[in-house]
Write a structure and sequence with these properties.
single chain, mainly alpha, Non-ribosomal Peptide Synthetase Peptidyl Carrier Protein, Chain A, two-stranded antiparallel ribbon, elongated
């Protein structure tokens, strides 16, 4: 079982995924700082409040912190937009797989099948 686990961990896909998760976590921290330290104060200027995370409304004894929810929505939108730009940029840089040239004639398999059909027809006569 230990050998299988080593083989699983040593696969390139698992290592790539691990690196992606680590970089994603670091990137998320940067975006959260961007939102809480730069964007929220800018939005807060227009709303008359500096910190959106303090926005709360209460019904009875229940407190709904919709400001924190707004922070997370802004975080998500920024991360999604940046990932979109990264993927778009990578797609432009990475060479596209060239489609196989369209052959005018039949493929080798089709030629062999055609020859087999001809031989079978000759045998039936």
């Amino acid at each position: 079982m230990l050998k299988e686990f080593k083989e699983f961990i040593a696969r390139g896909n698992v290592m790539d995924l691990a690196v992606g998760v680590i970089i994603g976590a670091a990137f998320t921290a940067i975006v959260k700082s961007l939102v809480s330290d730069l964007i929220n104060p800018l939005i807060g200027i227009f709303l008359g409040k500096i910190d959106l995370s303090n926005l709360v409304f209460s019904i009875g004894s229940a407190h709904f912190r919709y400001g924190s929810f707004l922070n997370e929505v802004i975080n998500f939108l920024i991360i999604a937009f940046v990932v979109f730009l990264m993927v778009k940029g990578i797609n432009k840089v990475m060479p596209k797989k060239k489609e196989e040239a369209v052959k005018e004639g039949p493929s080798k398999e089709e030629e062999y099948l055609g020859q087999i059909v001809k031989l079978l027809k000759k045998q039936d006569k």
